[in-house]
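For reproducibility, we list the full input for the flavin-adenine dinucleotide complex.
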Amino acid sequence: MHHPPMNEDVDILIVGAGPAGLALAAALADAGLRPLLLEQQSRAALEAAPEDGRDIALTHRARRVMEALGLWQRVPAAEIAPLREARVMDGDSPSTLRFASGGNGADQLGWLIPNHLIRRAALEAALARPTVRLECEARVTALDVNVDAATVTLADGRRLSAPLVVAADSRFSSTRRMAGIGAQMHDFGRSVVVGRVAHSRPNEGIAWECFRYGNTLALLPMNGDQCSAVVTLDSSAAPTWLSLGDDEFAARIEAQTGGRLGSIRAAGPRHHYPLVGVYSHRFAAPRVALIGDAAVGMHPVTAHGYNFGLYGVEVLARELGAAIKSGRDIGALSVLQAFEGEHRRTTLPIYLGTNAVVSLFTDERHPARMLRSAVLAVAERAPGLSGLIKGVITRQLTGGVKAA
Ligand SMILES: Cc1cc2nc3c(=O)[nH]c(=O)nc-3n(C[C@H](O)[C@H](O)[C@H](O)COP(=O)(O)OP(=O)(O)OC[C@H]3O[C@@H](n4cnc5c(N)ncnc54)[C@H](O)[C@@H]3O)c2cc1C
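The corresponding predicted structure, in tokenized form, follows.
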């Protein structure tokens, strides 16, 4: 197939200027590469990214990556909420499993930041680098790869070539499909309905995960006596929850918290996301790499999605920076496979573990209900088991372990 001449001033085409693609562009610029971002949305839409109901829990490692790229500093400090502790409750069972950061040198588990502020910070940080370019209203519709270049076609017919194309175009990535890379998709058949609530008692930086029969409520502590309420339910029940009046929504949340946060009122619009976990069969092919949700699209319950995106950005930028310095081809499979191997080792155990926990804690059949009560009760009382489970989860949150 005939390829147009390479764009001389572009090393890498990144499809998608979401938080992952933008962070990657910044990291690549710092590694001495010249990326061009292709984004289907308009520039105005990117700059004014609207509140979308997602409040993103970030680990210590994610924070370090964001600081190194100048994203963290671009989020207003008052919008960054500390996550000090996480507690899990199962129905009316008195057992609670607590996760705190104590003992590993970190004074908290992580932080929470609204997604639209991360998007804006990532846009600003990327554009602050003179070697990053962004084309908006540029929807990629085709991808062709040959021995020396990858070429994308845009909806307006233009074609662009570079040694490497990175797909950062969401968990339903069309670039991934066009590259011939399959993905394991797990449709949980459930949805989340998210909305901000204000409460009369302080949240003390504690996140609550309440597994009640019928639905699951997560409360993520935000600043200003507010929480992000995340209700996981059967998709068929989502329209009802979306159409509730504010008072009725707040009353349902208050009932589920057992009054722990005092009286509750709605403090923002509600949003709805169907739950589909996606794990790509490969993160790399000749002249193609996958990043962000296009590589791994997590169920949000363990709050890993964007954290994984940032870990992948760190590793891919490091590998490509090393390749360019030593004069190697950045689109070579051997270069990209180093990224793939490390990213798989970091993400696969947690992807599988998350899906298993979700199944256990949302299965309403009697054996599962008994099993999860037992898991919580035993974990709370047996120091060995509890220490093991909590240690693993806490270290993952604080980024204290590098996955083996
Ligand atoms: C309810 C909810 C809660 C979450 N909570 C957490 C959390 O606590 N912690 C956490 O780490 N993560 C969390 N996540 C996950 C996090 O939001 C995602 O991991 C992150 O937004 C993915 O970023 P991305 O850049 O990969 O993809 P996206 O944000 O989906 O961006 C993809 C971009 O690609 C563009 N695009 C798509 N197709 C094309 C094309 N053909 N051509 C050009 N452009 C294209 C799109 O317009 C978009 O801008 C949560 C997600 C949800 C739904």
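Residues 194 and 230 are 5 Å apart (CA to CA). Residues 400-404 have pLDDT under 50 and may be disordered. Both points were considered when choosing residues for closer inspection.
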